[in-house]
Amino acid sequence: MIGRITLKRALKRTAGLAAVADASIRRRGAAPHACILVYHRIADVSFVDPACDDWNVDPRTFERQVAALAECATIVPLSDVLRLLAERRNETRPLACLTFDDGYANFASAALPVLVRYGAPATVFVVTDAMDREGPMPFDAWSRAHAADQPPEAWRPLRWEELDRCVATGLVAVGAHSHTHRNGLGATREELDEEASRARSLLVARYGAAAGEAYSYPYGSRRLGQVTDAYVGAVRRAGFRTGVTTDLGVALPGDDPLALPRVEAHGLDTGAVITAKARGALGPYRLTDRLRRARRAGASTEGGH
Fold first, then answer.
1. For a 10 Å CB count at each end of the chain, is N or C smaller?
2. Secondary element (H or E) of residue 118
3. Which parts of the chain register pLDDT below 70?
4. In what helix (H) or strand (E) does residue 126 lie, and over which residues does it extend?
5. Are the C-beta atoms of 74 and 97 separated by less than 8 Å?
6. Which residues contact 43 (CB under 8 A, 6 or more apart)?
7. Spatial distance between the Cα atoms of 142 and 27, rounded to a whole number of angstroms
């Protein structure tokens, strides 16, 4: 019997090939849009767990993806994306944003050097309660399963001092990925308010108002009930101005700034596939997106981190 993760990877590989074909006939610059890519782990992981997604892009693949993105798109800070979309006229290059969820230590050790080499801005969304934790993040099933057999750089959270060094480069913006990574599915208004407001207060206290601008919803699917109107309201009340989901799509002028769609950057994605995604050739991924399912019990979900 084919494992769930093996099947998922096969579907995404097929979708990538189809997206490249679609992008080759897609008229460039047809509509202003921005592809907000979402990454999680950037680490050397030499195996595929057939039962548990690692949400990983290895560092060499990540650099090839950023290089391809720099060739085909204009990489901009997330904070500027909607303003730039509104200002664009007859542009032939799409906009692209780089975002990283969860806040792994390998963002500083593996992703940041690539961002610096290419002068690429990025936003890292951290789970504030997980910062400085020595063990795996509680919501991360892969890390909990493999912390004993994989080096810490593959799974441990960022330390505050590491995040300080990232911010000091001038390329990295900090955003909140909630305080404890609570799933919005079934959460109360009070719980959602706590997740958003506490995360924002901790980040603003350390990095100033700019760190209270952007929020990434854990798991992040509106279709699966993980991002509800109540959650968006909590994020708005906390003071955030931008929110990103895991809903598949490119950002368009006039989109709700607190519920922007994103596109997963997968470890299987070649430079050509990343280029296709940046150009908005997402039709082949609609099927794989529809296969996502939420799990109500515990923190685990098929809806993404």
1. N
2. helix 112-118
3. 1-2, 26-30, 90, 293-304
4. strand 122-126
5. no
6. 56, 58, 59, 104, 106, 110, 153, 154, 155
7. 40
Per-residue pLDDT tens digits for 38-87: 999 999 999 999 889 999 999 999 999 999 999 999 999 999 999 999 99
Q: Kindly tell me the burial class for residue 152, based on how many C-beta atoms sit within 10 Å of its own C-beta (0-12, 13-18, 19 or more).
A: middle
Single out the residue of 140, 157, 172, 155 nearest to residue 103, CA to CA.
Answer: 157
Identify the architecture of domain 4-286 in CATH.
Alpha-Beta Barrel (3.20)
d(CA 123, CA 97): 8
Helix axes 271-278, 59-72, angle to 10 degrees: 40
What's the predicted TM-score (pTM) here? 0.93
DSSP string covering 139-177: T-HHHHHHTTTS-GGGTPBPPHHHHHHHHHTSSEEEEE-
Q: Note the pLDDT tens digit of each residue in 183-213.
A: 999 999 999 999 999 999 999 999 999 999 9
Cβ atoms 266, 41 nearer than 8 A: no
Q: CA 134 to CA 161: how far, in whole Å?
A: 14
**Separation in Å, CA 243 to CA 37, 131, 172, 201:** 14, 21, 17, 16
CB 260, CB 217: distance < 8 Å: no
Domain spans of the chain?
4-286
Question: Please, what is the average pLDDT of the chain?
Answer: 92
Instruction: Specify the 3-state DSSP secondary structure of 15.
Output: helix
**Is 34 in a helix, a strand, or coil?**
strand
